[in-house]
Design a protein that fits this description.
Elements: H1 6-20, H2 29-43, H3 48-56, H4 61-67, H5 80-96, E1 100-104, H6 111-126, E2 134-140, H7 143-151, E3 153-157, E4 173-177, E5 185-190, H8 192-195, E6 198-202, E7 217-222, H9 231-243, E8 245-253, E9 266-270, E10 273-276
Parallel strand pairs: 1-2, 1-7, 2-6, 7-8
Antiparallel strand pairs: 3-5, 4-5, 8-10, 9-10
EC number: 2.1.1.80
Protein name: protein-glutamate O-methyltransferase
GO molecular function: protein-glutamate O-methyltransferase activity
Length: 279
């Protein structure tokens, strides 16, 4: 029998937080219930308490995680970050001729890392540094969205998702208008040149340690994910990410997110662009 009492919702909230770090306040009770109902249908288990019991024992844990992630993203979302990377970050990295390493956290269905990859390839051509090795690691806690991202196949509403004109997207995506009533939609499939740059991996930002070397990355994107954590957990995530960013490297945060305790160790360039100036 399905249980929807306040006690059940509190147990569910605690389990979500313990596993993922996602903080769902009391006003999110309806969201919790909707996600549990959907998960129950997928698992074909009618007893909600049984689901929580199994999850606490380690069963259905990934399904539970996938049920509670939010996956809103677009190509070239917050476009000023991509133009900053193109105009300020990548010219220097190309001149230095060292390898370029970028980390995209909470990469969701892949639009963000593919946008990063297209910007990177465009920059390598413009700044004539094709021989400089480059790679992007893109992680998410949700295995469903990672599977989707690895395919690299998207239907894009060009009215809702404005695409940039400063690079030739058809060099990096197979682009085809879709027929029918929604003629503003196009099919965008990532070409091999993009896919070869990106390694998609499962990772939980709430984990105490990340599988990266200290000062490994030139650029880190952590956008629109910190908002799902408590402030004290945001601080911990930022500290971990910061330890893997090179001095002189750039951290991009979402428009409503805060650098918090790192403010004394970064130069702020505006629009939530931060340059690490010391460890």
């Amino acid at each position: 029998m399905a249980t929807t009492s306040k006690g059940f919702l509190e147990k569910a909230r605690e389990e979500i937080y313990k596993i993922t770090g996602i903080h769902l306040a009391d006003n999110k009770d309806s969201l919790i219930l909707n996600r549990i109902e959907k998960l129950a249908r997928e698992l074909k288990i009618s007893d909600y308490d049984e689901i929580l019991k199994e999850v606490s024992l380690g069963k259905y844990r990934q399904e539970f995680i996938n049920a509670f992630t939010t996956n809103k993203t677009d190509f070239f979302r917050e476009p000023f970050h991509f133009t900053d990377m193109m105009d300020r970050v990548l010219p220097r990295l190309c001149r230095e001729k060292n390898s370029i390493k970028i980390y995209c956290s909470a990469s969701s269905t892949g639009e963000e890392p593919y946008s990063i990859a297209a910007t990177l390839l465009h920059a390598k051509e413009v700044y004539r540094c094709d021989g400089v090795p480059a790679s992007i690691i893109a992680t998410d806690i949700d295995t469903n969205v990672l599977d989707f991202a690895q395919k690299g196949q998207y239907k894009v509403d060009t009215l809702l998702n404005k695409l940039p004109t400063w690079l030739e997207l058809d060099r990096y995506f197979e682009m085809k208008p879709l027929e029918g009533e929604k003629s503003r939609e196009i099919q965008m499939n990532a070409k091999a040149c993009l896919k070869s740059l990106i390694s998609f991996k499962t990772m939980n930002l709430f984990s105490e340690k990340y599988p990266f070397a200290r000062n490994e990355f030139d650029v880190i994107f952590c956008r629109n994910v910190l908002i799902y954590f408590k402030v004290e957990d945001q601080k911990k995530v930022l500290e971990r990410l910061f330890s893997h960013l090179k001095v002189g490297g750039t951290l991009y945060l979402g428009h409503s997110e805060n650098i918090l305790t790192l403010q004394g160790r970064v130069d702020r360039l505006g629009q939530n662009i931060f340059v690490k100036n010391r460890d």
